[in-house]
Amino acid sequence: MRLISFLLLALGGLAAAHAAEEDVEADTTAVASGDTCCAVLKVYFGDKLSDQGSATYNESLATYWSAQEEQIYPTCIVRPTSAMDVSKALRFLVPLSCKFAIRAGGFGTVPGIANIKGGVTIDLRGLNDVALNSDNITVNVGSGAAWGAVYSQLQTSNLTVAGARAGSVGVGGSTLGGGLGDFAPKAGFAADQVIAFQVVLANGDIVTASATQNIALYKALKGGSSNLGIVTRLTFKTFPIENIWGGTILYNKTTIDAHAQALYDFASNPSYDANAGYLLSFIYNPSFGTILASRLAYAEPTENPPVFQAITAIPNQLQNSTQITNVAAFSNLSLSFSADGYRQDNWDLTFENNVVWYKSLYGLFQNSISSLKGVENVTWAFTLEPIVPAILAQSQATGGNILGLDNLTLPGLALGVFSATWQDPAKDKQVYDASDKFLQKVTDVAKKAKVLQLYVDVNYAGRKQNPIASFGMPNVAFLKQAAKQVDPNGVFQKLVPGGFKL
Ligand SMILES: Cc1cc2nc3c(=O)[nH]c(=O)nc-3n(C[C@H](O)[C@H](O)[C@H](O)COP(=O)(O)OP(=O)(O)OC[C@H]3O[C@@H](n4cnc5c(N)ncnc54)[C@H](O)[C@@H]3O)c2cc1C
User: Which residues form the FAD-binding PCMH-type domain (predicted)?
Assistant: First the structure.
């Protein structure tokens, strides 16, 4: 009976949905079943709604990055192709208190971050237009686009945006979580480069958030992830770029001391070269043991520029892929030490840039490997990514964000990103336990060494972390206030359980 009345509501179209919205406050405690929610949505969305077992449903699941996300089965997947579609979806889902998930690129690794068992998953990949505006400076990007499409399209005009390193990562999730890429020292976090967000609010309204409209929402979206609304389009400011130089050099692990020093010197250089982006990784796999990797990126076609020469001079190199290339091709080079569709786990912490600490961290990494016995084809990696004052200067120049990294001075910070990849679901508990133990150990030792910082990056945060709290109390208070203004019933916390919540 309830289903029939919901269907009648849907058949009555949006007018009825509007009426329901006016009459009934979103009651987020009485949740409609996934079947009911999908039946209602089907009336409006037709072929844009995929039922379990259909080809489009299976394609959507198969394109998540992590196997754990692929194995969560929503009752249906809705695939909007316009902001109006997203608005209509919310106008149906919210009054019925339907549980839903928001998915863009699907690269989040925490199970359930962008998918929902027995609910409705909104797959935004149909919102994937990339269009350079007539000013030849700004670009409109659908939130479901992948970064590779942005880089390819802008390259024809010798422009780019500093987004995620891997071309297949989604623009939506990565930008709303901050977004640190190779060229962040030139332009800031991906979120800092957004001059306007088109957002669908919980009540279905489609609004613009920019420096002049919905100003609090604009700032809150620069790090606030899925807590405020569904972003459908982002307008980025681009910057000029032609060819670049970069690649990855693999080294024997015996060179760790030289790398620790080189990383420290790179990040603490008072005349930092803003063209340069650098990552240092420790990588373990049972087939090759532990190796070290330096990923180097330079925003000019200059071979081995002076800023990297201390790193490229480190001996005992096993492989070197550095080359002159372009941003789109670079984003397609394999940079990840994990593979698409494998089981994944991530977490991150931030440290003071400190050479003694890097050596000690490497020791903790090596000690943690013993807990992986019997996990076949596991890849266990830890990446250090400098957060230099040049990045934060860009954030400030563009009006600031809510990440809480405002007062950074030399010697700077390093974001530490842990990732594990494995294949056998039977080993989940062992790998999760090992990952949790390693996180605890690194936290404890870093605290003792007085190098641990508050900041946890949303984009790599782990199952047990709370990156939003790491923005600091004033930013959390700002975010809560901004969320309350646009979503007084807390729809994006109560009906969207996945993701990092306020
Ligand atoms: C191989 C690889 C490389 C990576 N490289 C980088 C990198 O260089 N820099 C970096 O910062 N991060 C990087 N990441 C991390 C990546 O930024 C995060 O995983 C990010 O969440 C991915 O965004 P997505 O849209 O693909 O993910 P999704 O899993 O689709 O979404 C992630 C979260 O954002 C929410 N969300 C997505 N779109 C919207 C929207 N339009 N409106 C509201 N909420 C939304 C989702 O609900 C979910 O909570 C990388 C990850 C991988 C696996």
Answer: 70-241
Architecture of domain 130-240+472-486: 2-Layer Sandwich (3.30)
Any idea which architecture 2-126 has in CATH? 2-Layer Sandwich (3.30)
Q: pLDDT category, 340, cuts 50, 70, 90?
A: confident
Task: Report the topology of domain 244-470.
Answer: Vanillyl-alcohol Oxidase; Chain A, domain 3 (3.40.462)
| Ligand 1 lined by 167 (C-beta under 6 Å) | no
Domains 2-126 and 130-240+472-486 alike in fold: no
163 lines ligand 1 (CB under 6 A): no
Question: Ligand 1 centre from 273 Cα, in Å?
Answer: 28
Q: Could you tell me the residue ranges of all domains in the chain?
A: 2-126, 130-240+472-486, 244-470
Cβ–Cβ < 8 Å for 485, 216? yes
pLDDT tens profile 137-186: 999 999 999 999 999 999 999 999 999 999 999 999 999 999 999 999 99
Q: What is the 3-state secondary structure (H, E, C) of 293-331?
A: EEEEEECCCCCCCHHHHHHHCCCCEEEECCEEECHHHHH
Residue 164 CA to ligand 1 centre (angstroms): 9
Q: Is the CB–ligand 1 distance for residue 174 below 6 Å?
A: yes
Among the atoms of ligand 1, which is closest to the Cα of residue 172?
38
Name residue, tokens 């209602």: 40
pLDDT at position 338, please? 62
pLDDT at position 11, please?
A: 36
pLDDT digits (tens, 9 = 90+) for 104-136: 999 999 999 999 999 999 999 999 999 999 999
Q: Which parts of 423-498 are beta strand (E)?
A: 452-453
